[in-house]
Amino acid sequence: MRSFWEPRRAGVMVMMAATAAMWAAPAGIGRATKVIRSADLLRGSATTKLKENDAVNENDRIRTQSSGRVRVVLNDGSILNVGQSSLLTVRATTATSRAGSLELAYGRVRAIVSPSKSPASPFEIRTATALCGVLGTTLFVDSSRDLTRIANLSDDATSRVRVVSTNPQAPGEVILLPGQGTSVPASRAPQPPRRWSPEEVRAANADTEIP
Fold it and tell me: Is residue 40 within a helix (H) or strand (E), and if so which, with residue range?
C-alpha cells in the first residue's frame, strides 16, 4: 500500500530538482539585437549560429566571420557593436567589474557603456595586451595578439577611460579624455594619449557600424 506521503514527497522532489536546475542555469546578461550575415555563439563546447533575439549568457563567446557583425544589448543598457572577424567573451561579475565585462581576443568592438552606479566597479574590457576601465562612455577597441588600439569616442566632456597593460611588469596608466586614443604594445605600458584624427574616428565608426 502506498503511503499518503509518497505523492507529496515525489512532488517536493520534482520542485527541488527544478529549483536546482534553475540555479545551475547560466545567467542571462544580454541579447543579440542585430546579426549581419555570419556569426557564431560558442557556449561551453557547443557552437551554434547566432541569431537575432538570442540570449547571451555570462562566459558566452561571440565570433563574427569576415563579413559578419553583431549588436548585443546588455541588461544594464550597454550596447556592443562587434565588427567583422572578431572574437569576444562576455564575462561574469568580478570584484572590480560589473556583469557585462568583456574579453576581446581579437577584432574590433565599439561599446556604448551605460553609466556605472559605482566608480569602484567600472565596465572593463580586457585584451591580450591591455585592460580598459570605462565609466559611461563610448569606447572603441581594436585588438590583436601584439597590439591594442583604444579610443574614447564619447561626446561627454566628463567621460574617462583608464588604460593599463595586462603585464604587471609594465606599470603605468593613461587616462583618455574624449577624442583621445592610445596604443598598448605587448608587454609594454600604454603609449601617451594623443588626439585621434577625424580620419581615424571615421574609420573606427565605419568598422563597427551596424545599420
Answer: strand 39-43
Give the single-character DSSP code of 53: T
User: How many residues comprise the chain?
Assistant: 211
Dihedral (CA of 153, 40, 166, 29) sign: positive
Torsion sign, CA atoms 168, 173, 176, 177:
positive
Q: Is 29 exposed, middle or buried (0-12, 13-18, 19+ CB in 10 A)?
A: buried
Q: Parallel, antiparallel, or unpaired: how do β-strands 87-90 and 79-82 relate?
A: unpaired
- Count the alpha carbons within 13 Å of 76 in the hemisphere toward its beta carbon: 19
Distances 31 to 8, 76, 124 between C-alpha atoms, Å = 39, 11, 19
Residue corresponding to grid cell 502506498: 2
pLDDT at residue 48 in the model: 97
* Residue 82, C-alpha cell as written in the block: 562587434
Please compute the mean of the pLDDT values over residues 193-198 and round it to a whole number. Answer: 98
Whole-number Å distance between alpha carbons of 95 and 101: 12
Inter-residue contact 109 to 102 (CB < 8 Å): yes
Q: CA 173: distance to chain centroid? A: 21
Residue 120 is given by DSSP the state T
Interval 182-211 mean pLDDT: 96
Using CA atoms of 166, 168, 170, 171 in order, give the dihedral in degrees to the nearest 10: 100
Q: Is the pTM of this model over 0.90?
A: no
Place of cell 577597441: 141
115 CB-contact burial (10 Å; exposed 0-12 / middle 13-18 / buried 19+):
middle
